[in-house]
Amino acid sequence: MTTRRRLGIGLISAGWMGMLHSKAYLAVRENYPDLGIDPDLVIVADPSEANANTAVERFGYRETTDDIQRVLTHPDVDAVSICAPNFLHRDFALAAVAAGKPFWIEKPMGTGVEQSRQIADAVEASGLVTSVGFNYRHAPAVGHVRRLIREGTLGEIRSIRVWLNADYSASPEGPRTWRFVKEQAGSGVLGDLLSHGFDLAQYLVGPIRGVTSATRTFISERPAPLAGGQGHGVRADPDAPALPVENEDYAAVIARFGSGTMGTFESSRIAIGARCDYGFELFGSLGSAKWNFERMNEVDVCLAGERGYGFTRTMTEPGFGEFGRFQPGGGMGLSFDDLKTIEAKLFLESIATGRQLAPSVADGLVAAGIASAAAASASDGTWHQVPEPTGRTTFDA
């Protein structure tokens, strides 16, 4: 019989992502019974009493508070999830480090590369394990492509194209929430979406060394939000004056990789019709592959030796990464929530073993550094070098 270990969890911010973290923790025992870890949802902190109470009702947290220090000093809390808006990430992460609590934080880790560096440096000095929400690298189809690359099946990877296009801000009538305010969000799509793309590309083909880019804000004003709204459910105030949008709606980036691979990246938050059109295609000397999150459970591969050189669709199935933990047969499919469950498992296993298995804050710093270099390039029109990765990165492990 497996000896089981209890790990107490504190949640900071109980919006949509906080609920998703909570669901993922509870799913770990069901999908990974052999891990021997029982996440115990102890306490949730949120300034909204309604949000905190919802977390209690849905997931069984025992206590609520509006003070994150009560979470961090709670004797039953072993680790925390930080699911607050970007502008709170740095302070909450540093508080978790000071309290000696491993944490799982969403990207971007702060409002810019400097805040991300402060987090990464503090974590490196403390020796804590962490997790950052780079969930797309956990898709079994992505893992399959990575394995083909590592085994040399696709040969030398010559180029990769990555895109993350969405329509969540396509309407100019949508409210100017914190996501459009530079002091609170930092960059626009560079941090919000392309940080995922940068991590995904490096997970596949290695470190990015330099970038040049262009950005644009197409919707320059938005109505103020109604008071009292929260998260993705905030509505515009029809009687309020328009306010300026302070960060980019669109970004295009060209990248040079250390391996010699060339890359292009594109992202938009105002692409009408693109719901979650996030994907990549890469081309090697012996073959190519392409994947899209909107069809996340399949991958197209073309090998040069095959007759006709056409792409063949492969459905993920047990044997593809963690797929078999969730479904017994190909074609049944995983969901976004399942990717977060894999992420939760890696975080908890990192805590239990002391080894950094989940995407780390060092990975988060690398993505923030690329986004910062891209923003600088968009400002001055020149190539910018990307800092060498430091700390316990995992994208190239």
Automatic annotation (TrEMBL):
Keyword terms: Oxidoreductase
Coiled-coil stretches: none
Entry-linked InterPro entries: Gfo/Idh/MocA-like_OxRdtase_N, Gfo/Idh/MocA_oxidrdct_glycsds, GFO_IDH_MocA-like_dom, NAD(P)-bd_dom_sf
Entry keyword Nuclease: no
Matches recorded under SUPFAM superfamilies: Glyceraldehyde-3-phosphate dehydrogenase-like, C-terminal domain, NAD(P)-binding Rossmann-fold domains
Domain GFO/IDH/MocA-like oxidoreductase: start-end pairs: 144-289
GO molecular function, a single term: oxidoreductase activity
Gfo/Idh/MocA-like oxidoreductase N-terminal domain boundaries: 8-134
Gene3D superfamilies membership: Dihydrodipicolinate Reductase, domain 2 (3.30.360.10), NAD(P)-binding Rossmann-like Domain (3.40.50.720)
Protein name: Myo-inositol 2-dehydrogenase
